[in-house]
Specification:
The complex is a heterodimer of chains A (287) and B (360).
Chain A lengths: L4 H33 L1 E3 L5 E3 L2 H8 L1 H35 L2 H12 L6 H12 L4 H8 L13 H25 L3 H9 L4 H29 L3 H6 L7 H11 L3 H25 L4 H5 L1
Helix pairs in contact in A: 1-12, 2-3, 2-12, 3-7, 3-9, 7-9, 8-9, 11-12
Chain B lengths: L2 E12 L2 E12 L3 E5 L6 H9 L6 E6 L2 E2 L10 E4 L11 H11 L4 H14 L15 H13 L5 E5 L7 H18 L2 E6 L2 H7 L2 E6 L2 E6 L1 H6 L4 H6 L4 E11 L2 E6 L4 E5 L9 E6 L5 E2 L8 E11 L6 E5 L5 E5 L14 E6 L5 E4 L3
Parallel strand pairs in B: 3-8, 3-9, 6-7, 7-8
Antiparallel strand pairs in B: 1-2, 1-4, 4-5, 9-10, 11-12, 11-14, 12-13, 14-20, 15-19, 16-17, 16-19, 17-18
Helix pairs in contact in B: 2-3, 2-4
Classes of the chains: A mainly alpha (287), B alpha+beta (360).
The structure holds adenosine-5'-diphosphate and magnesium ion.
Amino acid sequence: MAVPRSSKMVFWMFLAPVLCWLLLLIVLPHIDLLVMSFSGENDLGKSTWTLQNYRNFFTEPIYWNTFLRTAVFSIITTLITFLLAMPVAFYIVKVVRPRLQGAMLMMLLLPFWVSELVRVYGWMILLRESGVINHFLVKFGLLERPIEMLYNDATMIMGLVYTSMLFMVVPLISAMESLDDSLVEAAYDLGSSKTVIWWKIILPHCKPGITSGSIVVFMLVLGNYLTPNLMGGKNSLWFTEQIYNQFIASFNWNQGAAFGFLLLLLSSLIIWIGLKLSRQKLGEVAS
Amino acid sequence: MDIDLSVANLVKKFGNFTAVDQVTFDVPQGSFFSILGPSGCGKTTLLRMVAGFEEPTSGTIHIRGKDMAGVSPNQRPVNLVFQHLALFPMMNVAENIAFGLKRRKVASAQIKKQIDEILERVGLPGYAQQRIDQLSGGQKQRVAIARCLVLEPSVLLLDEPLGALDLKLREQMKVELKKLQSKVGTTFVYITHDQSEALVMSDRVAVMNMGRYEQIGTPQELYNQPLTPFVAQFVGDNNLWSGEVVEQSGNNIVMKTEEGFVFRTAIQGPISVGQHANLYLRPETMRILPTEKEALNCFNVVVKAILFDGANSRLLTVTPGGQELLVALPQNRSFDHIKPGQAIEVGWHPDAAVCFKAEA
Ligand SMILES: Nc1ncnc2c1ncn2[C@@H]1O[C@H](COP(=O)(O)OP(=O)(O)O)[C@@H](O)[C@H]1O
Ligand SMILES: [Mg+2]
């Protein structure tokens, strides 16, 4: 069927703002950053094309160690988030009465009405040496003197998991909602134990939800700045802090831009490997 | 004869609502047992209790003599074919069928052999590697049945498995299921709201209404000697008359219908003169233009329409009082002269009807 001319025009009219937005806010800055990342100063102080910014990443152990650490912690965070979110999603979709479902979703959503900064400060008030938890532990005689619970990797991961929960639970809920109860019952009827039902029926069914949730959480955690900065250890950097340092502290925008691109490339690579390992295609996950 | 499934005084309540009420039956080994009832009468609930998905409020279930109380569904020697089949969409046909065998840790060479055998049995040889979404409705049906039969259950439970199929396929699958059952010899417990499915396939049928059993019997018994008004109405087509008893001697009565016809007939259960009765009369028991009228109840009707349906053709007629009656029209060419609008005489034998005292 031929599309009438006028409807084609309407189509472009609606698409134009989106295209403008994409061009102005995403494509142009990235081109600028890309150019910047390949520029440097030669011995005479003149600007030239160079690969030095990228070379620095691979030759200076501090840089790629930071990246490696960030990536590993992001993967661990994603994994923990998934392990916590799966039972939560199952409980909300399959166990709770329908009337309570909405209320439970609201409770999950509520913390996200305040900004991340406020949420992190909330944790700090609870966990710091003079914080609420220490106060009560000492009062009830469980501790002799307050201990510092902030500024270590475990606390940081906990903070990241907390920040990411919602982004894992929501895709898992929508995946779980499309699971027909009778499939679970059929598996049970055919002699499966509960473990087998989880492995053979529920997890394979939820695979697209798991993957999209994991990608979102992984990317958000990898690109997070606030939580690792405020809750993490002082002598262990997150890669985004490395980028921040280049831009703000060292005022080396060229190096910062190169790190930014490396973060994009390497995280895409990790996701690609993840998809390959679980034998999925990005298109299937997105749909 | 050994009893495969024995259910006694089974009750299931959801809050105040009684879904299954004091149901008792035995199913002999190798037989095809159907539970027939309108939707919402508690058939699925009953079957789910046998499969172990619902806990009975009271009553007992024995399978091959073993009490099933507290036995979980994955431990029971029964399998259920679900109303919407519940085939696993992420697995192909072979994996679906192998699912139960793998849970039993059967060796993979043996599994492969059994898959081929059962696919042959259900008429799907060579379909092992097909994906579920590549199959037609009837093929999915067979895979769902094969997936259960391969486990050689003591009893196979089927929950309206033909409900989703179109009419033509349903007719075909009815015959196939019956043939399959007699071939494999497994005990089938089949639930349906479609009386023709139950009548065609079953050795015995239980008619269920509002959680209770109305009557259990062979299809012939249910059709020819319904014991309750519900069975008379639900199984097969019937014409209904209400009227008042004017004479009574033993089981034989004379009743006067609201329209004024006077019929001789026999009644089930006690009744006395002056009480009301309902009379059910099958379309095929009415004779068109009877020649020997002495023993018959005869009256005149007007033909409204001819409902031609091959061997199952009927006349839609109206009495002078405006009541519609279905009369079977034998296709032996002797009634070809009957046309809509024509007045004809019909008659029926007093023994052909069933009659119950009307509920107050
Ligand atoms: N889990 C349940 N909770 C409450 N009522 C139920 C439940 N399951 C079934 N019922 C009720 O029990 C009655 C019988 O249902 P069901 O056994 O599914 O009927 P059928 O299979 O004969 O159509 C219905 O009125 C239904 O609403
Ligand atoms: Mg049902």
